[in-house]
């Protein structure tokens, strides 16, 4: 997003002429927090934790969103920007690149795919497929490579004239389509659900979400919708005429400003799993917002950027000047009103069209200058831009950035099966998430060479394929001269420990390190600790929920 609030007609969901936006500040305060966007609005009375309803309770739940329409509640005063508490920072550690993907895709997931794919194939054809977890890995690896080297037809990768060896040497074309067309993660005969329209892929989605929920919630978060392309039949398929992808499934996502997805929920109409009380009080859209932000901690200040959540008819009571009079003002004119309890402000600003924003975090000050083309003067000139617009533009694009990275190398899946399209979409999501984590860690530790997304996807596909290759037992057949000239391959991982040293059960003593910031656990649990092994010189968790120190030395 452009920091100078320069709006264009790109696919990015930036603040534009015909849409307004809001910021949502999850900061503990004495009054309710409001979400605003000129289409729908909400008063958040509770913090939802898990399935229960808990949320910064400060007012009676009977006070609903109509409180914004009371003109006596608003004053023509400047809103004071609120301070944000700093989040604790951890010392970065760089893991092998493949680990960032493997934390989402464990071995048990491939095994489940193989098992359920075999069951489905037998139910359908009365024959055995005998698919293995290794073949499922190859199927996914080939699909990832197809996203990197896009051809118009899948079978072209095996075409004798232009044979693509990266793909054709891994699986035969017949076996590839046989596995892909039968791909399942649930048993159709026993796992059926009447209320979940995505029950066929629910175990897969929950495994990905489980890993996402372990990630730290950063200071600035973005909540928006993304589209999963699909043209077949399904009850949850949406038609969005103004989106780049018009047909498909709508997926609401919570991301960081870097594009790292932290939570998601597929929209399925009345069956969307949200808190029923929030839905009755505030409507489906706001209930979904509260559902996705339920994991944001209360003990820190977090700013969440959202749009299209406040209806015009809900803010008619805000004492703005008459709109016809307001439109006659020069470009850059700002009008601001604040609630009497100073919990929220509303800012109206003229760009090409009037723009309205609500925030419980920042108002119009400090005002900056941005460049715009003034039609009357027939030249570019500086106009005033309120701080709330600058803040919105700098924090809103997380979901759009994630979508852009997926679109660059999207896995092609021309299939009428919605399960295949959704599975491949979330493989793309995992790849983007893994690359963002890898890139941020690599930059933090000062790595000079960082793979771009294209190289990272190829590397992950290669590592998946290599994990299916069985190593031959016994001593390799190598003569003395060859062995002498060979250079031993060094494991350059940050926390690499020789297996014999790690499992010798001698003098492995825990030691507490006096560090300002905790280190990431070497057992790949996503935790941070200040306890390390004296002998192995790696940091390992030991707490009430897990004993990575023991598990690491028993491998």
Automatic annotation (TrEMBL):
Protein name, per record: PiggyBac transposable element-derived protein 3-like protein
Looking at the record, the residues that make up the PiggyBac transposable element-derived protein domain are 99-308, 310-435
| UniProt-listed Pfam families | DDE_Tnp_1_7 (PF13843)
Please state the span of the N-terminal signal peptide per the UniProt entry.
none
Show the taxonomic lineage. Answer: Eukaryota, Metazoa, Ecdysozoa, Arthropoda, Chelicerata
From which organism does this entry originate? Leptotrombidium deliense
Source taxon at top rank: Eukaryota
